[in-house]
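Project standup — Tuesday

K.O.: blocked on the structure for the chain from last sprint. Re-posting the sequence here as requested.
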Amino acid sequence: MKLPRCWKCAHIFSWKQAFRHRDGETTCPVCGSVQYLQQTARWRSNFVPLIGVVLILALINIEEVSGLSYWLAVVGTFAVSLFAYPFCYRFTEQKEDLF
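H.V.: unblocked you, prediction finished:
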C-alpha cells in the first residue's frame, strides 16, 4: 500500500496531507493543482470500515466477549481504519462521481 501521488507533479502526499481532504478534494502543496479522489479510491475507502465491522461481528459470534473487550475491539478497528484510509486514496484531475 502506498500513499497517493499528485497527478500533475508526482509529489507523494504525506499521511496527514492525504487524510485532510474535503469532499474528496485537496490541493497539492507543491504545484497547487486541485486533486480529486478517483472513483475506485472512493469504493476502496468505503470497504475499510466494513471489514472491521465484519471482524468484530465474527469475534462476537465465535466466543463470548466481555463488554470491555468488545469496546476495545471497536476502538481498535476504528483506529486501524482511520490509519488505513489515506493508503486507499488515489487522486486524479477530474471530479468523478461515486456511481
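K.O.: great, moving the ticket to review. The chain has three helices and three strands. The radius of gyration is 17 Å.
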